[in-house]
Fold this sequence. Notes:
The protein is mainly α. It has two domains: 72 residues, no CATH class; 244 residues, no CATH class. Helices cover 66% and strands 0% of the residues. The radius of gyration is 24 Å and the shape is elongated. The relative contact order is 0.11. This is ER membrane associated RNA degradation. InterPro entries: ERMARD.
Amino acid sequence: MEFLWDFLNHQxxxxxxxxxxxxxxxxxxxxxxxxxxxLAFSVVLxxxxxxxxxxxxxxxxxxxxxxxxLAEGYSARFHPLARLKKQVLSCERSLRVWPLLPLxxxxxxxxxxxxxxxxxxxxxxLILRLTSDLYHHxxxxxxxxxxxxxxxxxxxxxxxxxxxxxxxxxxxxxxxxLEVLAVLQNIGRRCAQVSRQVAASWEQRHQQWVEKRLxxxxxxxxxxxxxxxxxxxxxxxxxxxLIALELVNIHMVHGKNAHEYQQYLKFLxxxxxxxxxxAAHTSPEKNKWVETVRLTHTALQKMRAFGExxxxxxxxxxxxxxxxxx
Length: 326
């Protein structure tokens, strides 16, 4: 069924149903490869509803056996949840480029003098605390999730891929689930935008520094950027971890009453607002790196405050059934 939904319905997929019904593709011109795949998976689906005697005869055929294995192992590619997983992993890969970005020795020495202010220290403390809290909500049946208590998230290369590999049902997702996924997708999209912008700005400024083409103000801005990036990197990793954990527990949204659901959406939208502001401040047009520290501090405080209420989906997954809201 997930395969058919991918092919026929999901907006990010081929949308075969819409293209045929809207006349975008003519039947004579319909690709034979897609027709063959649809028919093959339809046969597998039919075998679930015919008599066992008939089904067993067909399932003995090598081609049908192969199709059944493919169908049983298939997971959605174009459902919003699947697209968000892909988005998280893509953003994580782009963040891994940051430590490789070049920094001239002279700039590194000058940057060291800008680090260690009270707001940056407060942010780092919050990141450590929030990361530790999120680690406590990792699935217990995966060995890769053990022994992480004191390890920074950016030092755990397998963490996000393992979380995103966990199978989550995608059929019959109600409106509340899709609404949450839409907000999480927008957050992930902005995180990816920030990552791209930082890498592009860094490379440009580095080249200008090496060629001694930076004016005094631009030079100061470059130093602020190199200092801010050390804070933004773990912050974005933290947000990606939060998204991945909420994805694993996305169907726990049914455990929220109307008020709790609205409060949860409000929190997610505040996180979205932070990433939107971050994208604006790190854009080539603005380059406001000092302001990103203030934005980050405020966002981390909101994450801590909402986390203390234990109203994220990962929190509901840990509660006994009797404690969840009806």
